[in-house]
Request: fold
Amino acid sequence: MLILLTNDDGIYAPGLAAMEQHLRRLGEVVVVAPATEQSGVGHSITYLTPLIVKEVSRNNGSSGEHRGWAVHGSPADCVKIGVHQFCPRPPDLVVSGINAGLNAGINVLYSGTVAAAIEGAFFGITSLAVSLQFDEHARYHQAAELATRVIVEVLEKKGPEPQLYNLNIPTAALTGMPEVWIVPMSVTRYGDSFEKRTDPWGRDYYWLIGGPAPATPGHETDLSALAKGKVTLTPLDYNMTRQTVLAEMEQWRFQL
Reply:
């Protein structure tokens, strides 16, 4: 199996290193990741400027063992150029992560981690975004071992068609017997706000403060399951067409 591995935290992120180590049990891993952190960039791509890529070795030296490719661009750029230029053949699987912080609810739409997996799905490749609840002392190797077990089972259970998945691991799931819940993505708006501040020159500026999404009783989603300490797995789709409304609109006749 050939696996293309990327992330949005940068090629030197510990979550990427842990995921790489465990995925090597499944096959050959090609690492193509951003040169610097790209959190929150969504599905942006680089096309107005050159895309600079640097080969990275394991000991950061010129004579060290090849580690992967550092891309001065977005996570989506990494997958795009990884498939076209650095994989010896089309990969069988794209994995993005492990991200430092959960990517659940509407944060999926902002996430560079998820965007990289979506880019893989564009190519018709089964792709997974993997995220771990933020912790200053995050146990990435435990999370990577758990994520790899989930990936193996997903590949065994899924149908023949390529599929896009979003996998989130709460810290609580790293102890005891973790449970994987198949749940939809929450679309409840987060309780965001902006704090107004003043810089030393008397100019106003604003800092985004992210608040939790309100609970939706009786409706289990990725957010509610994660709050219960469950690992969440959500199948995603990048086709944003609302089919029911499209069917209604097909009867419209415009008089211009």
In short: DSSP finds six helices and eleven strands in the chain. The radius of gyration is 20 Å. The first strand starts at residue 2 and ends at 6. The helical segments are 14-23, 75-86, 112-122, 140-157, 222-227, 243-249.
